[in-house]
Amino acid sequence: MHFSHFKAGAGPTTEALDAAIADLAGARGMIVDVRGNPGGTNKVDELVANRFADRKRHYMQTQTRYGRKHDDLWPAEYRNVEPGGPAQFTRPTILLAHRFSASGADGFALAMRVLPHVTVVGDLTEGAFSAQYRTRCRTAGPCGLPSRSFGT
What we know:
The protein is of the alpha/beta class. The chain has one domain: 2-enoyl-CoA Hydratase, Chain A, domain 1 (Alpha-Beta Complex), CATH 3.90.226.10. 18% of the residues lie in helices and 31% in strands. It contains three helices and nine strands; from the N terminus they run βαβαβββαββββ. A hairpin with a 3-residue loop joins strand 7 (132-137) and strand 8 (141-146). Helix 2 packs parallel to helix 3 (104-113). The relative contact order is 0.21. The model has no long low-confidence stretch (mean pLDDT 78).
């Protein structure tokens, strides 16, 4: 069994990720730990999750707000996890997550949970997905508002 802890930041390079998956080709299973990971970008989440995908699977949809009204949203974008890189790890995998797994770690947990060989263990993730834009609220001064709507 192999144990990996992903820290915050830009994430591993594609080459390093592919090398790690190749090195683990004979492992019976893997534990991936994103506890305490405050996040990163969607591209890194999918880049890593794709190395665990056995086939294309839908895991999330997003809609971007473009106006002042609550329903001023662009059409939905559907996010999928699908095999990526020269090899995928499709043996039993445990994903450790908790309430301080945020942003990119949230998206990674959503992508991983749709894979049949992955078991998510721990607590709910933070649920802090959206990039925010800064604005001035009428009663509270400066505040951040989400620019996207997320769903599964």
